[in-house]
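Hey Z.,

So I finally got round to the zinc ion thing we talked about over coffee. Here's the setup:
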Amino acid sequence: MNHTKGDTMKAVRLVEIGKPLQEQEVPLPALGDQGVLVRVKAAGICHSDVHYRAGKSPVGVLPQTLGHEVAGIIEKVGPGVSNDRVGERVSLHYLLTCGNCDYCRQGREQFCVTGTMIGKHRDGGYAEYITVPARNAVPLPDTVSFEQGAVLMCSTSTSFHALRKARLKAGETVAIFGAGGLGMSAIQLAYAMGASAVFAIDISPQKLATAKTYGAFPVDASACDPVETLHQKTRGKGVDVSLEVIGLPETMQQAVRCLGVFGRAALAGIAESPFEIDSYQELLGKEAEVIGCSDHLLEELPILLEFLRQGRVDLSHVITESVSLNAEVINNVLDSLEQFEGPVRTVIKPAQ
Ligand SMILES: [Zn+2]
Ligand SMILES: [Zn+2]
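And the result:
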């Protein structure tokens, strides 16, 4: 252990809503019976963190260390955890659940009645160390980097959960609305799950070009009607599965309208206003489905990590920058995310 300086550590924390994050020296987090102390090697800076800082989504009691996309090395374990886990490379599942309520028992743990999220309701990974229950620490294969292991815990798992909710089957066609972080993962996951063709819909030429490198057929929504184009490209049938990760009423509507018979639209983008659809034409008449998607499940993470290990999912194009555990630098990244600028993904790598 190298944290002998009075058992404190550096953390970058949300102290006051609407204000820049601050660097603080805090006590090392307490380790419970079933807990593990993880030395943070990578923590993703997510768009949700911008909302937490701005007060657009509520967080727990302040001050709060942000960071819910975390990977690292187990440094110490609680008395109830096998010592064999010390030294293990892990990715952290960000939802802490009771395991005992009706939702947890039914495998719907994201609705756990006492569920909390790291980096939101309890201290997260913008720090040198973090503690979580041992079952939240998922083994990270040696060949997968900490950066990818961290970012995988949020956007990629959301995309994976949504495609599973949409019951994507081998041989089906998929339309992904939004070719950012979630969309880029979704393209690769759809192919890994056996999709015959994946269409990426966006208005950014740069994002469409990246989508193409992952094998997607780019559809530039600034130059055509994506619904019409998707029907043409599927010889009038419409797509089997669509996924909306932008969060706009217009693209949600398109994600439903592009469906074929028995099509399923998975909605994962958070929109601020409702969208309208012609229920007979778009749903009843096709027996189509609209499916809401929220978070992901612990059981999905080992599958995802295996996809990464096999190289079927590669996030190296997505993670474009890494920064140190420094409040000023992190605030700058959050500022640029707030303006929808900046790189697709930045990862904090504490120097240790
Ligand atoms: Zn996130
Ligand atoms: Zn529960």
